[in-house]
Amino acid sequence: MAETATNTQAPVMTDPEWIALESINEETRRFIFGEAMLRLLQGRGLAEPGDERWNVTQEGQQALQAHSN
Hints:
Helix content: 40-55%
């Protein structure tokens, strides 16, 4: 049986999910995604609501770092 190598640190996400997470991380002024995307990232533990804006969680930071490598 063939085995496939996977990166256990970076969660499998669609391109829009990665872009949204990167946008939150970069504190983009004009977030082009809607509330549903934010809730999806929150549900995965990658982002959380803050006082005035959403923040990338520690797990989200690790995913971004692993994704960029």
